[in-house]
């Protein structure tokens, strides 16, 4: 019910009581009608005036204020002024909508804040581990190990150097992910033969696979070129990260297979290993930054914990999909799509 109908009802009830009281004493029907009409007109005009002046105008200005704040001045100017007969109802609706919108904004900010805190604590943890290790090795070397046990000293220097490598991967990957997230990195698509790129990448990683005695197998039907439209350098990074993981988390004497499958207007690339696998509960989280399935093992192996986050960013920037399936102890398959050229 809007407020004008309310005034109408109040005025009518008031006039009816007044005219009714008069009729009770005078018993004169025409006078009853006259008083009813006159008091109705007077009370309605008076109430209407009072409401307009003291309630309606004020509520309307509150409503306008909320409406303008909610929309922002520019949008409000573009939409023009909103007029309604029911400013109380409008104001209530605006306040409800506003409160809902603010609550969801607050939830979003809280989630971002939580994410920021986690991210900072992850980063400092990731940096601290290799840094403290390097510090420890250097202090031991300074304490005279060079002279006392030169063989052990060389071993410590090698360990320090591996930790320095880890720091440098971390900085490189953080830099990469920051650039990808800020949109500073543009995806420059070109037509290229995916088959050639996969072979190049396998050549680069051959030495690493040999260390673990892992066979890198690429079977593409018919040796025909597979033309795709994508950013060649970025896709090389995706391949390096995925194949490198298949070696890091693969079994000694194991195998990594790379397969391509043509779809309607995409190419599906699958990288399968027969390594340690990933627990089902961890599968949805492997693309998160710094997420590691088994902290101790992953740390022992090294890596920044950002490799898969980078993969996901690159593939999504191409508007394509990346997916993982895995069985613990049996192996893992990462797959992604690319646009056919
Ligand atoms: P990392 O630098 O630790 O390798 P990634 O982002 O590349 O970081 O991978 C995140 C985690 O996902 C790894 O620490 C590992 O636990 C798990 N993971 C990634 N690839 C594989 C794989 N092929 N097999 C088993 N686990 C994997």
Outline:
The protein is 65% helix and 13% strand. It has 341 residues and is of the alpha+beta class.
Mean pLDDT: 87
Instruction: Kindly report the oligomeric state of this protein.
Output: single chain
Low-confidence stretches: none
CATH superfamily of the largest domain: Histidine kinase-like ATPase, C-terminal domain
What top-tier CATH class of the largest domain fits best? Alpha Beta
GO molecular function, one term: ATP binding
Pfam families: HATPase_c (PF02518), HisKA (PF00512)
EC number: 2.7.13.3
Enzyme class: transferase
Note down, in words, how this protein is organized.
This protein is α+β, with helices and mostly antiparallel strands and 341 residues long. The chain folds into three domains: 3-85, no CATH class; 100-182, Helix Hairpins; 190-339, Histidine kinase-like ATPase, C-terminal domain (Heat Shock Protein 90). It contains nine helices and seven strands; from the N terminus they run H-H-H-H-H-E-H-E-E-H-E-E-H-H-E-E. Strands 1, 2, 3, 4, 5, 6 and 7 form a seven-stranded mixed beta sheet that branches. Helix 2 packs across helix 3, helix 4 runs antiparallel to helix 5 (150-182) and helix 7 runs antiparallel to helix 9. It starts with a helix and ends with a strand. Adenosine-5'-diphosphate (ADP) is lined by residues 241, 245-246, 248-249, 273, 275-278, 286, 291-294, 298, 303-309, 332. Residues 122-341 form the Histidine kinase domain. The chain crosses the membrane at residues 7-25, 31-51.
């Amino acid at each position: 019910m809007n407020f004008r109908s309310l005034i109408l009802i109040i005025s009518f009830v008031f006039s009816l009581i007044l005219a009714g009281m008069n009729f009770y004493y005078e018993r004169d029907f025409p006078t009853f009608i006259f008083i009813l009409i006159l008091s109705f007109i007077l009370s309605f005009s008076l109430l209407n005036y009072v409401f307009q002046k003291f309630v309606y105008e004020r509520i309307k200005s509150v409503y306008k204020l909320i409406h303008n704040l909610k929309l922002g001045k520019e949008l409000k100017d573009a939409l023009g002024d909103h007029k309604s007969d029911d400013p109380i109802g409008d104001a209530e609706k605006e306040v409800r909508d506003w409160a809902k919108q603010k609550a969801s904004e607050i939830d979003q900010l809280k989630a971002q804040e939580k994410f920021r805190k986690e991210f900072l604590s992850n980063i400092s943890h990731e940096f601290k581990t290799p840094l403290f290790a390097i510090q420890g090795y250097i202090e031991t070397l300074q304490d005279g190990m060079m002279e006392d046990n030169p063989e052990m000293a060389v071993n410590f220097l090698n360990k320090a150097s591996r930790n320095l490598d880890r720091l440098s991967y971390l900085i490189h990957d953080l830099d990469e992910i920051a650039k990808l997230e800020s949109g500073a990195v543009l995806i420059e698509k070109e037509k290229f033969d995916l088959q050639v790129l996969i072979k190049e990448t396998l050549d680069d990683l051959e030495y690493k696979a040999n260390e673990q005695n892992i066979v890198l197998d690429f079977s593409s039907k018919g040796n025909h070129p597979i033309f795709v439209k994508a950013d060649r350098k970025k896709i090389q990074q995706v391949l390096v990260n995925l194949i490198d993981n298949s070696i890091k988390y693969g079994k000694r004497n194991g195998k990594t297979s790379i397969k391509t499958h043509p779809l309607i207007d995409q190419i599906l690339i699958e990288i399968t290993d027969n390594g340690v696998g990933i627990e089902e509960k961890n599968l949805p989280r492997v693309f998160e930054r710094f997420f590691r399935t088994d902290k101790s093992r992953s740390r022992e192996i090294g890596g920044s914990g950002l490799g898969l986050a980078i993969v996901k960013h690159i593939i999504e920037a191409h508007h394509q999909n990346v997916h993982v399936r895995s069985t613990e102890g049996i192996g893992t398959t990462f797959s992604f799509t690319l646009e056919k050229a």
